[in-house]
Amino acid sequence: WSMVNFDAKGQRNNPYETAISKKTVSSLQLTWHLDNLNDAPYSLQVSSPVVAGGVLYVGSRDGRFYARDAVTGKKLWTVKLGTWVAYPAAVANGIVYVPVIAAKRGKLKALDAATGATLWTANFKDGAAGSPVVANGRVFQSAGGPNPLYAFDARTGRRLWKTDMYGGCWGAPAVSNGIVYTLSDHSLNAFSAATGAKLWEQDALVGGSDVGSAAVAGDKVYGDNTGATAAFDAATGALAWKVGAGPNTSPGIAVAKDRVYSLDAAGVIWNYDATSGAASFISGQVGQHASPTFANGILYTGSPDAVSAYDVKNGATLWSAPLVAGVQASPVIANGMLYVLSGGSLYAYGLKS
Questions:
Q1: Which pLDDT belongs to residue 63?
Q2: Closest by alpha carbon to 103, among 132, 81, 127, 131?
């Protein structure tokens, strides 16, 4: 799980997870935890973890950035980067890319994944907003209002291009087939990954401020905003279908095979047909607020008081763990482990041996 939405396509679906299954998920238990990541326990502006090469990377509000053994929690290294690491990092080819919020301008820092040493730093006139995505030797990063989108050489940090978007963009870009997709509170935008030229803009999801990230699967790109979920032709931006409306509660969606999973305004989990948009319930339980994550036939999400796992076939609750402060960011599943942020702490759950 090397980027905020698993990979550059943003599907929030780990297709390689086999250890945690419908038969084993009930044996998940707390293995280790890391505290004091956030001084505002109920804020959603916290850095969820990423996992690569057996190492978990996570940032904190005080600017510290941690590398821990993903299974045991053993300290590998910690560095102080600045004032606030509020968005998840991305890992590729031995480099960790970390967005840092500063008082006057944001930064994107590239760290050696093995040591934490800084390799290069890119500065923004605006604060970094959302998480970086790495694809084909380039790093793509949005930088908050007025929402420029940047592309950097992933090895050197040289800026390749910058383009402006309309509206607030707080989620990570999605990249597929040479196109970068960004979802703002005004539009879904498509840009050339090579040049930054705008290819198309679609306003079918206009409105709302808690927007998340687009996800690309096959020939479609999916997104949600204002409580609506929609599918578009990935090449042209033509609207394929749109379902729902109301205040948005979900910062992202999950896509697996021919299904799209999202939350509505009440925090109810929905299961959409990826082609037609036909909808059915996963769970009618209200109050879910962490966008869903999919792995091995199981959908994970969080509520104000627990993290839960659901069977996508029938909506049955397979496992749940109480968390007094609720779930602040979408769960991450990697290599038989489940990671959840709650109350400024990171909780790591593993299977009983």
A1: 85
A2: 127
